[in-house]
User: Fold this.
Amino acid sequence: MNKETRKQRIEELKRKNLKKQLEEKFKCICASITDFEFLTSKEIELRFQNVYSNNQDPRFDSDII
Assistant:
């Protein structure tokens, strides 16, 4: 496995692992979790940093009820 292929594989595994962690942690956001499938781990991290930047938890669908 060459260096570039190995690097791509590592990034792919990181994305899959992060997606799995996010799905477990934020099960109530099911509709939007699939949007993360094609994002890099850095893009996902930035999205969640934006959510928490004001020390506010994300709004869950169950909170609306």
